[in-house]
């Protein structure tokens, strides 16, 4: 009597063992020589797209982080410009621009950003000022909101030409602009 797979013989079940042979996968069909390199070829075709996708995600996160830091720095500087400090003397245009520059480039600011590449523009009812990239001071009016009309507002723009860290062909350089706008609280 021949033994068949799964046949009971005196209370015992005989199940044939499947050896793990490299030429005979678990599915049971033997691989031919032309199929053996197919998975390596498929991996080689998919890898560049996967690397570009991961690089794009890293770059987007980097740029998004910088944009959030620039928006926060511009809002903080604009808020400082429209409120009168307890000492009684209002902020000058140069002080507001310096505050925006420091907030966007120092610890807690945007990743990989230095003062050399960041330009600050302040506009107010009494005029405005621009702190060029790399400079440490800006001219402009001594008081931004004093004598302004009832609808006067101060706008601070932090502008930076950003280069993402991962070399993705479609993201070479991006200009990021963070803006903050507040209505003057004192006249």
TrEMBL record:
Signal peptide: none annotated. Residues 37-79 form the TadE-like domain. The chain crosses the membrane at residues 43-64. Residues 1-33 are annotated as: Disordered. Residues 16-29 have a biased composition (Low complexity). Coiled coil: none annotated. Keywords: Membrane, Transmembrane, Transmembrane helix. It holds the Pfam family TadE. InterPro entries: TadE-like_dom (IPR012495). The keyword Protein biosynthesis does not apply. The keyword Transmembrane helix applies. This is Pilus assembly protein. It comes from Phycicoccus avicenniae.
């Amino acid at each position: 009597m021949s033994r068949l797979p799964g046949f009971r013989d005196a209370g015992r079940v005989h199940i044939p063992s499947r050896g793990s042979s490299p030429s005979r996968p678990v599915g049971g069909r033997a691989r031919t020589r032309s199929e053996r390199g197919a998975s390596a070829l498929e991996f080689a075709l998919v890898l560049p797209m996967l690397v570009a996708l991961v690089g794009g995600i890293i770059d987007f996160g980097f740029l998004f982080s910088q944009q959030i830091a620039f928006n926060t720095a511009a809002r903080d500087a604009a808020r400082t410009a429209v409120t009168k400090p307890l000492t009684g003397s209002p902020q000058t245009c140069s002080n507001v621009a310096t505050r925006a520059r420091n907030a966007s480039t120092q610890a807690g600011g945007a990743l990989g950003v230095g003062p050399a590449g960041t330009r600050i523009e302040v506009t107010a009812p009494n005029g405005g000022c621009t702190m060029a990239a790399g400079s440490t001071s800006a001219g402009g009016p001594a008081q931004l909101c004093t004598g302004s009309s009832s609808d006067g507002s101060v706008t601070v723009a932090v502008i930076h030409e950003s280069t993402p860290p991962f070399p993705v062909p479609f993201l070479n350089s991006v200009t990021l602009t963070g803006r903050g706008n507040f209505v003057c609280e004192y006249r």
